Each structure stands twice: as C-alpha cells, then as structure tokens.
Amino acid sequence: MGNENIRSKLFFKRAVSGNLVVQGIRYAQDKFLLMLLMLCFFQNGRAQDKTISITMDDIPNTEMYEQNGFRSDLLLMLDALDVPFTIFINEDKIYKTRFRAKNEKLLEAWIANAQSLIGNHSYSHPRYSEVGYEAFMADVVKGEELSRDLAIKYDKELRYFRFPFNDMGKDSLQHHGMRDFMESRNMVITPFTIESSDWMFDVVYRYYLEQGELEKAKAIGEAYVEKTMAMVEHFETVAQTEHGRPMSHIYLCHDNRLNTDYLEEIIIRLKQQGYDIVDLDQSLEDPLYQLPDHYYRKWGVSWLYRWMASQKIRVSWMKQEPSLKDIESTYHEIIKKRQ
C-alpha cells in the first residue's frame, strides 16, 4: 500500500508538473507572438505616431433626424471633415418614429458614406448582464437584418460588434459565452480606450437648449470638449506608463445633439495636438489590442483598464481620471425634474 501511495503521488505530481509545463510553453508562445507583433508595429513606424479612431454608438438618431427636417447634421459634418469613422447601429431606432421609410434612408446614408465602417450595437440596446445569454444573442441577430443587406449593397463588411453599455456580462461565464458566440459569427468585439460620458453631457445640453438658456448650453458644450481632451491626456498617460509607448486610441461617443454641435471641435483639437484620425481597422492593428482581458464585471470600463491584471493598479488609475462630478450632479438634478 505504501509503494502504491508513493507511485500515485508521483504520478499526480508529474501530471500537474506536465500540465504546468504545457501552460508555460503556451504562455511563452503567446508572449513571443505578441512581441513579434509589437516589433512589426514599431518597424512600420506606427508606434511613434499619435493616432485615434472615432467610433459612434446608437446610430441612427431618428428622433433628431425628424426634428431637423430629415437631415443628419452630424453625418454632414463628418463628411465635410473627410475623416474616417465607425458606426454602431441599433436597428430598433428605425421604428422609433412613424417615418420608417425615411429612417431606413438615413441608415443607408450612414452605411453608404465612403468614410464609414459599420458595426452591430444590438437591436434594442439591452444590458447583457440583465437579460442573459439567449435573449441577448437573439437581439444581436435581430440587430443586423437591415444592416447586413445594406453592407452587401455597398460592398462593406459587417463584422464589428459593440456591447450596449459595454456590458460584457456579470461574470467570466457570461463573458466567455458571448465571446464564443461572436467568434462563431466572425464578429469582432470592439474595444474603446477613451470616452467622456458624452451621453450625460448631452442630456444637460439639450435641457438648456429646450429651456432657452443658450449661454448655459454653450458652457456645457465647451465643458464637454475640455473634459474630452483631459480624458485623452489621462489615457495617453496610462498607455505610456503601463506600456511604454503611445498607442492607437479608440474614442467612443454617440449620435446626439451634443456631438452634432461639438465633435468637430474635438476633432480639430485632436489634430492640433498631433493626432492623426484613422479608421478602426488601423487602430486595431496595434498589438496592444491582443492583450488578454482581465476584467470580468459588467461595467463598461476602458480597455486600458481591462488589460490590467491587478485590481489595485486599475483602481489607482481610475481615481486619477478627470472628475465628472459636476456634470453628474447637474444630470441627476435634471432627471429628477423630469420624473
């Protein structure tokens, strides 16, 4: 019995050791591959460039389209600036007003634009951690019925997906389940590195416009621009400190009145600071986007935070973000007034 126990323990120890060796080899291989990708990136000179791509969620804003006499000033502005951008579509917005045919034409205009890449943002913008796998999966599929046909019409790919609220699930099980589903459909889960809560600024901005308080509205718009540029500086510092170089950033914003009036100013400021506006395809060539995601919660944080294995380091950086307390306070006051 004693010899059998010893043999059993030795067998178990060797099995565990062998598994660890295999895991170690795989880790080394993955790390080596990432190093090769980074080397190619540096040799191409892109690591030395300051680049950023513009991505917009909740396309198309059909309510604003109707209010503006069936014209999208945001699309017209982007077209005039001739910069690349990526749109993430919620097809249920087509049916939010009684002008379905016109709304479909609006969606087609966004997709047809020569500078646009296109992505699915689900049909109805549900929160994945709340509705669960089956319901969310069905909403994703439903969310590309029109878009896929239009993509084919204009010889484009519909291969990007962004989670509503950037909620990728409440735990690792939900995260991995949806990753597998996206891979099965050849969809790319789209990250972001920078956002500035434009949706919250937009609520306050539109409220002041509705009240005829134009100076306050202007102040909110200008505050949005300044806060966005402060966020750019913050996340540039995170990238430099944690990864030792600039990276190709991805900015997340929305199809709303605020960006119709102020996104142009942000783009101008970015260019003044030496940023080249590139398309999402190019940004994702940065090898940093191949890093593993260590964040298995439902909150929609920057991918620069997701790549941090240490929660302590992640929280430390989050605490250094430019404060949004003022706009949060005003936003909640307005929400209370409307209830």
Give a short synopsis of this structure.
This protein has 339 residues and is of the alpha/beta class.
Please, could you describe this protein's structure?
- The chain contains 15 helices and 8 strands.
- The model is unreliable at 1-28 (pLDDT under 50).
- The protein folds into 2 domains: 1-43; 44-338, Alpha-Beta Barrel (TIM Barrel).
- It has 339 residues and is of the alpha/beta class.
- Helix 3 (73-81) runs parallel beside helix 11 (257-272), helix 9 packs antiparallel against helix 10 (214-243) and helix 10 packs across helix 11.
- Strand 4, helix 8 (172-184) and strand 5 form a beta-alpha-beta unit.
- It starts with a helix and ends with a helix.
How many structural domains are formed by the residues? Answer: 2
Shape assignment = globular
Order of helices and strands: HEHHEHEHHHEHEEHHEHEHHHH
Query: Strand percentage, roughly?
Result: 5-15%
Radius of gyration: 23 Å
Q: What is the percent of helical residues?
A: 55-70%
CATH architecture of the largest domain: Alpha-Beta Barrel
Main sheet properties = 8 strands, parallel
Low-pLDDT sequence parts: 1-28
Average pLDDT reading: 90
Care to count the β-strands?
A: 8
Structural class: alpha/beta
Would you identify the CATH H-level superfamily of the largest domain?
Glycoside hydrolase/deacetylase
* CATH class group of the largest domain: Alpha Beta
CATH topology of the largest domain: TIM Barrel
Distance between the termini: 75 Å
Helices, by number, come to 15
